[in-house]
Design goal:
Elements (H helix, E strand, L loop, with lengths): L15 H11 L4 H8 L3 H9 L6 H11 L3 H26 L9 H6 L13 H12 L4 H18 L6 H15 L9 H14 L4 H14 L11
């Protein structure tokens, strides 16, 4: 039995089939030889080499016996390649969504430290799109519209002529994020109505006294109140 010693240094972004083709050449084997050894058709081998067919556990075991390395190597080679394809596809999706940024006060969000303070050029915009999606907790602009579309329509109807809908919705979202880790009792309408009466009397006080008491009264009534600067 011939002992082959090869150093595997694959390009994980290329199809595993390229590694297969390289090893076939180094071992002086043909695709026809691989057909017999893997007990498959020439079409199967072609799809495997072109990256159209995935390397299964069974295929990995056969490749290990015929071409060398371990079954784990071939499975990892396949997994890394599919991950690379997914990364490329995600980059293309983000690139196709950059116009969505026009609906939001991106520069203001950068100044507020909510997203990366980078130059808004073609290279960085996809990353900013990704950060904005993360900010809203959605996977795509379509999902964002599904979640916030009705709210956007309400603002457009009530604020004719103003083009700050995206800023208002973003401001509301920042408030949502701010209260995510806060706790308060279940909402009590009667307590809240009482709180409102006292809150009205507090407005004449300096903010350093008024705001903490306002927050306390709201919390006791089951309402989370936070202060979010405008953007």
């Amino acid at each position: 039995m011939t002992n082959y010693n090869y150093t595997f240094d694959p390009d994980w972004g290329s199809p595993p089939g390229e590694t297969i083709a390289d090893l076939l050449e180094e071992k002086d084997l043909t695709e026809a030889d691989l057909v017999k050894d893997l007990d498959c058709t020439i079409e199967d081998i072609s799809e495997l080499i072109n990256g159209k067919a995935a390397i299964t556990k069974d295929t990995a075991a056969k490749l290990s016996r015929v071409l060398g390395s371990t079954e784990g190597f071939w499975l990892e080679r396949e997994a890394q390649y599919r991950a690379a394809l997914a990364k490329i596809a995600e980059a293309e999706r983000l690139e196709s969504w950059v116009d969505w940024l026009d609906e939001f006060p991106v520069k203001e969000l950068q100044k507020a430290g909510q997203i990366s303070d980078c130059r808004l050029d073609s290279r960085n915009k996809p990353r900013v799109v990704q950060e904005l999606l993360q900010l809203f907790g959605v996977a795509s602009p379509d999902q964002w519209r599904a979640c916030y579309g009705n709210l956007a329509v309400s603002f457009r109807r009530s604020r004719t002529g103003q083009d700050n809908t995206g800023a208002i919705i973003t401001w509301i979202r920042l408030g949502e994020i701010k209260v995510e880790n806060l706790n308060c009792p279940q909402f009590n309408r009667a307590k809240f109505e009482e709180a409102v009466q006292e809150i009205r009397t507090l407005t004449v006080l300096p903010p350093e006294y008024f705001l903490p008491r306002l927050q306390q009264l709201c919390c006791q009534a089951g309402v989370l109140w936070v202060l979010v600067e405008k953007i």
